[in-house]
# Entry
Amino acid sequence: MRFGYWMPVFGGWLRNIADEGMEASWDYVRRLTQRSEETGWDLSLIAELNLNDIKGVEEPALDAWSTAAALAAVTRSLELMVAVRPNFHQPALFAKAAANIDNISNGRLSLNVVSSWWADEATQYGLQFDQHDDRYARTSEWLSVVDGLWREKRFSFEGERYRLKDAICEPKPVSKPRPTIYAGGESDAAKTLIANQCDAYVMHGDPVEAIRPKIADMARRREQAGKGPMRYGMAGYAIVRDSEAEAKKELERITALPPKPPKGFDNFDQWLSGTQLERELKLQEYSVSNRGLRPNFIGTPEQLHERIAEYEGAGLDLLLLQMSPQAEEMDRFAEQVIRPMKLAA
# Structure
């Protein structure tokens, strides 16, 4: 299993906790990233949103690509998986910039291609927002342009959205045959695109019983497309403590609704309708993004070792974890989970 973490570009990951002690700043992410290399982490996912989806739209959010370029120059071994949304980037110019970052990092750049979901953000920034299947059609063309520029000396392309003639992208990326392209999605359009044009499939958090058939389905699609094996990753939120009771106490803390609803928690009374159990489950889904609590990476080191092994047995090879406060929790997780598992491998 490879262990990755979400870079705290929004100043944290908990919607119910206003101040997690991890400001959205270059200084914090630089120190966090350099420390993560020392403690055994493999990868960092840098999300790309211009508005802060976690703490409220008026709060700071670090730019993904300038942050990635800076981190490429001050790190040595960490894979930098950077989210990119095709409707925010002209593909030929993007291919040039990304190839340069890959060279700065000596081949450690990878992409997390996201077909944009936030219409209001696109409108605020004056960008076109495509409807669902149109987003994947754009992404398909966009990936063809980027891949062609990275692969060929001169590249021409005629599509519905993009046109190039004898374009040159030099230097090429260090990564061969190209930087790894990750993508996620649960619609048929998304899965078809990923099976045909990407290298790895990333999923929201779910119990292992739900992840296993998703991996099997994508492997089948990949084989039908005549492509080689894929990598598989999943998001999750981790809490590791010396006892299960301590871990559950921390879970209660991060999922409790504060007296004053946090920013962005619109119509929360209506949203929280239902039985007490339904309310608790909804609060958990709200407080931690990307269905991060569903895998139940909450407990003692031994319990987490066992659960991670189950996912590995199902075909998963990458975890993309959130935790808070991040620096302290990442050190604890590295010492109690990553280090023993790598020593035992």
Q: What stands out?
A: Residues 86 and 139 are 6 Å apart (CA to CA). The chain has one domain: 2-344. The chain is about 45% helix and 15% strand.
